[in-house]
Amino acid sequence: MTDFNIGEYIQDLHIQQDDEVVSEVQNLVKMVELIGEDAWLCRQYHFGAAGAMEQQLTYLGGTLLPQAERKMTKLSSTGVSTETYNYDQFGFVSQGTDVETDAHENSEIDHDQLEVDQQNFIDGLRERMRTAAIIFVCHLKAHDVLSNTLEQLTYGQIKAKAAQNRAYWAEKNRKTG
Questions:
Q1: Which of 24, 25, 100, 162 has the greatest number of CB atoms lying within 10 Å of its CB?
Q2: Could you read off the pLDDT of 35-80 as tens digits, one per residue?
Q3: Are the CB atoms for 42 and 146 separated by under 8 Å?
Q4: H or E element in which residue 106 lies
Q5: Hey, where are the domains in the chain?
Q6: Which backbone phi and psi does 87 adopt, to 5 degrees?
């Protein structure tokens, strides 16, 4: 996992207000608030949606995209012969003894096609990240508007307070052992 800064990523997107995805997510926010009819309920919904997209962005940008880009670099630097490995849940090459499930196999797919497929996968991840960022920002803004109306903490304030509480309890637990 690499260090991935969601704030920097979102700032670098430069999404226009008339973007189709922005419009669709804003319509979703309005629909939730029409259906929910209760500011407290809608505020919590927006908090949950923003949090889910924040976690998705962290995973995609911090883990999956860097792995895919490393694989693309490896594909670009290899010649005609390509090999694939099966990894277990911890990221290690599995130690199968059966020929069918052995961890090493030669690929019969054309090398150029492998590069095209991997680039398409990377492009799809970037598009998914863009969509997740738009959903995150729209729900975060909706949450914060309702929070201000209800005189409650904003999304960022809630996250900061939670981090402060975790640090306090971690320190307290460390001292009491």
A1: 25
A2: 999 999 999 999 999 999 999 999 999 999 999 999 999 988 865 5
A3: yes
A4: strand 104-106
A5: 6-79+112-176
A6: -110, 145
CA distance readout (Å), 132 to 14, 28, 118, 126, 142? 14, 14, 21, 10, 15
Q: Which amino acid is at 69?
A: E
Token digits for 136? Answer: 């995150």
Alpha carbon separation from 111 to 46, 107, 116, 125 (Å, rounded): 45, 9, 9, 21
pTM for the predicted model, two decimal places: 0.78
As a whole number of angstroms, the distance between CA 65 and CA 119 comes to 11
Both tokens of 123, joined, read 């492009």
Q: What's the rounded Cα separation, in Å, for the pair 43 and 47?
A: 6
